[in-house]
Design brief:
about 290 residues, alpha/beta, Rossmann fold, three-stranded antiparallel beta sheet
Length: about 290
């Protein structure tokens, strides 16, 4: 859904405070309680918040799932992540098989697809992505099993990797902790490295979702080479020099606007020299 300035302000307030009464929100936004109730109803219908007794709370405030670090990352650069998610959703066509990693940017993409897409098959290691995409039943969600990582609410380990090695998504949507366009992506969570490396080999196309704050940042280890990434979707604040370098190297770059139509018809996927080593998506590799 396209968010008005008032709706975004309401969500930002909930992101900081967790749960608020209608009266508090009305005072914060300088509108009537009835106006706040209507806005809460609209946002709740879109899955962006949860209605509570005499008020509302943010959609991701459950302490059983989220740790403090994850809560902070869920709200960091949220407007940019949502814009990137909308732009990413426009590249998806009905019937495709996607992989979404456990990043908070891919979680915003899952919310967007859950509201506006159908007929997709989505493979993920993220519990939160499963919850958002599996609600309506319009899309098939395949959750990779494994050990639970509370810092990302996602699954990892040998079982996760073995399952992913048998699958061949059309598009792998990944994010990262740090990104240097001349080199590649960087991560600190060593137990999650291999999932991204495996899916980068298996997918027909790798799309990196990265907001401006990630450029020029290194972390513990390099995970993907820049040559493994066919498309980068970023926000309008992405460094101009980095964008130019990516485009000169042949990588497609999409700069997301703050607003825009959802899931418009996407152009055909860019051809690459990579060939899928197995059959159609989700079919096991031949022995």
């Amino acid at each position: 859904m396209d968010l008005s300035h008032r709706q975004q302000a309401l969500l930002d307030h909930l992101a900081r405070h967790g749960e608020c009464a209608y009266g508090e929100l009305a005072g914060r936004l300088r509108v009537s309680s009835m106006t706040v109730r209507r806005e809460v109803d609209r946002l709740a219908a879109g899955g962006l918040l949860i209605k509570a007794l005499r008020g509302a709370r943010r959609a991701e405030s459950g302490p059983a799932l989220l740790e403090t670090d994850l809560q902070a990352r869920l709200t960091a650069n949220l407007a940019e992540k949502r814009a990137i998610a909308v732009a990413a959703a426009r590249t998806v066509r009905p019937g495709q098989t996607l992989f979404l990693d456990g990043s908070t940017t891919c979680l915003e993409l899952a919310k967007e697809l859950g509201q506006h897409a159908e007929g997709l098959t989505v493979v993920t290691s993220s519990v939160l992505v499963c919850l958002h995409l599996g609600r309506g039943g319009a899309n098939t969600v395949l959750c990779l099993g494994g050990h639970y990582d509370p810092t990302s609410a996602s699954l990892y380990g040998p079982e996760t990797e073995a399952a992913l090695e048998r699958l061949y998504p059309d598009i792998a949507f990944l994010s990262t902790k740090g990104f240097i366009p001349a080199e590649g992506t960087f991560e600190s969570a060593s137990h999650l490295f291999r999932l991204k490396q495996i899916v980068a080999r298996q997918a027909q196309q790798v799309t990196l979702l990265v907001d401006h704050s990630k450029y020029g940042q290194r972390a513990l280890a390099q995970v993907l080479n820049a040559a493994q990434i066919q498309r980068v979707i970023s926000d309008a604040k992405a460094p101009t020099a980095a964008v130019a370098l990516l485009r000169r190297s042949g990588c497609e770059v999409v700069l997301a606007a703050d607003r825009g139509p959802r899931l418009a018809a996407a152009p055909p996927a860019r051809k690459t020299t990579r060939r899928r080593p197995g059959g159609p998506a989700l079919k096991p590799a031949r022995p």
